[in-house]
Structure formats: structure tokens, C-alpha cells
Design a protein that fits this description.
Cytochrome Bc1 Complex, Chain A, domain 1; alpha+beta; 6-stranded mixed β-sheet; about 450 residues
Amino acid sequence: MTDATTTPLHPRPVGGEPRPWAFPAPERSSLPNGLTVLRSHRPGQRVIAVEMNLTAPLETEPQGQEGVATIMARAFNEGTDKHTAEEFAAELERCGATLDAHADHAGLRVSLEVPASRLTKALGLLADALRAPAFADSEIERLVRNRLDEIPHELANPGRRAAMALYAALFPAESRMSRPRQGTAETVERIDAKAVRAFYDAHIRPAAATAVVVGDLTGIDLDAALKETLGTWTGSAAEPPVWSSADVNDAARVVIVHRPGAVQTQLLIGRTGPDRHDPVYPARRLGIYCLGGTITSRLDRVLREEKGYTYGIRAFSQVLRSSADGSGLALLGIRGSVATDVTGPALADLWQVLRTLAAEGLTDDERDAAVQYLVGVAPLSFETAAAVAGTLADQVEEELPDDYQARLYARLAETGAVEASAAVVRALPADGLVTVLVGDAEQIAGPVRDLGIGEVTVVGG
């Protein structure tokens, strides 16, 4: 047996010199058919990510057919003029590719991931799906049935139900934002292949689309690949979307969605604010992170660590629609869940955190820890081609400059505690929040009324 004292040991590994990092700057071009292209060469990323932005906001859905954009997005995977649904799925599998699509307020997003060696073939399938989707009656009927089956599950989910109630409270009934993104049972069941085709014909064209391609492009003639695939897609010119004015009711009040016997209360507290074009966005992001971005944030320290009310509570900022003309809109909020019997005390402590923040501001230590994380984790956050492509596609969707993300980290590092404090207090003022609670109204309504955080209304679950 070898003597442990004489066993040779491998040298202890040491860290290398840190290398400078910056968010990759894309190269912008366009195809003759009007399609905009952003590309980013990422050596070593042999799985190529392609994100397609299609300018078809939910606001353009015909009234009474809300959900048609979602059904259309799902149908892009269900056959073309060249392949049946089954054949199309088989062709994607042969490429080792995945193709997904979804619709949101800002528009449609189609995502493709494929090994670099099969990029051209996969781009051809993507082009066929966008150029000539089959929209077969049988496939649309199946997608509609699937969507109708999903709705009862969403209504039974406290988090989803809270979101529905918050949007309905913030926006007037005639606003598309007041209604579920993927439609209601009443509107979805009105959708058929004719409606899907009409929505496609009205909005989907290359001149209203952007392709973001990210990955290791070594040895790939991307211009040629795009020309013979997405370059064959034709269509008329496109007009930019015109957003209707958003009449928002941010007056402080409480909406309780009654769930008899619920052992937990789902919290969703929010209001609206400006999008990422706002010059104070970096300070707001920093402040929101300090308030509720991690398990060491103020909200978690009080409600989770000190009081044991929750497994976790988070503050967030979510862009709803964005425009360089100043008409953009974001949802600013706090979400989490607490035991039913501590709903009143938990909300009281949450409001105390907000009031203390307004009175005293963030500490330099809180600010420094947040900057260190947000800036320091960036290289890891964008390790994959898909992460880079998704962020570049977000910038396109939000009409932000191509170097926005790269400049954001420098701005975060320059933001002080005073600026971050002012931004988060302005974003989430203690006296200007709409509170949605999904829980047992018979147990929580009284204690919540006693808090004085707004008029309390109880609605059915």
C-alpha cells in the first residue's frame, strides 16, 4: 500500500488572468425582400440560435378572436406547402433542430436552434413555415381544442389567476392588455383555420420581420444560406404598429380573488411605468434588485428570514410594449405567496419595507452587492448562443439600439445608491399600488382592510 505521505499530488489549479468581456455587438444587414438580419459570430458555439421577430402585436387581433395569434404561432410547426405536420416534425428531427413560437403583446417570436453543420437545411424549414404554412383545418381544430383544455388549468393556478386579475384591474375592459394574452374560452372557440389565415395574411411578411442569428459561423456562408432560404419569402411592405393610448388606473386598491379553503394567499402587487427607453431604467433595475431580486434582498430578509411568512418573494420589472416614441409600457411589481393566516401581517411588513426604503434609501453595501452580481454574472448569463440571440431579439422588439445591452452594464456600474433608491421608490410607491390577492376572502379580507392600503373588492375565483 502506498504511503500517504509519499503519494504524489497534482499541482493545485490556480485561476487565470481575467479576460475583458463585453456583450457582443451584432452586425446588421437586410435581404432584398425587406427582412432585417442581425448576426453575431460566437466562436465555439456550435449550436446556432435563430430568433425571428414578427411584428404582429396582440393589439391587432380581431375583437372577439383574442388568442388567434397564439394559435397561429403554434401552427407554424404543423406543416407547410411541402410537408405535412408529421413530415415537418421528422425533417426538424433529422436536422437535430427545435422550432418554437409564441405570441405576446409586442409581437410574435419564432425560435430555432440547430447544430451549425445543419443550419442551411433548418433555415429552409423555418423559411417554409413562415412563407407557406399549411394551416390545415384539422391541425387548427386540434390546436384550438388543446388551448381550450389549457384554460381551466390556468384559472386554477393562483399565480396565473392573480396576473389575470391585475391586468383587468389596471387596464380598461376595451384595452387588449386587460384580457389574457392567449385568449379566453369564449374567444378561442371562435377561432378556425380561416381566422388564422386572415391574421397571417394581414401581418406576417418579411418586411415586418427581423432574423437574429448567433453562433459559431466559421465556414458558413450565411449570406448564401439566408438568400436561398429566408430570402425566398416574399410579401408586401409593412407599416409599423400604432399603439393605442394606455388608460391605466394605478389608484391604490385591493382585489381579492376568492378561493374558499385556500391554505395560501398568492400576492401580486403592481403598477405600470415606463419601458427600457427611460433614462433611469438602469437605476430602477438596480433598485428593484436590491428590493426583491434575490434571497438576500430586503423583502426576503424580512418576510422570509426574519418572519418565516414565505418561501420567497420577488420584485420585478416586465416590459409590456416598447417604442422609441415614448409610448412604451412596463409592469412593475412584487409577487410571492404566504400562508393564509399571516396574510395581514405579511402585507403589513411588506408595506413597512417600502416605507422604510422611501424614508432611508438603500445602503452603499446593498448597492455594491447588487452591482457586483448584475455586472459580474453577465458573462455567465450569455454563455450560450440562445441567450445572446434572445437578448438581441428583445432589443429589436423594444426598438432599442443594437449596443443597448453592452452599454447597460457600464451604466449599472456608474449608478449610485441615491439614484437607485429614488428610482425604485418612484417605481413602487407605497401609496400607489394595486394589490391582487388570490386566497380565502373570508379569512383575509378583514385583516387586509385594517391595513388601509386601499379599498378592498372581493371577486369570485
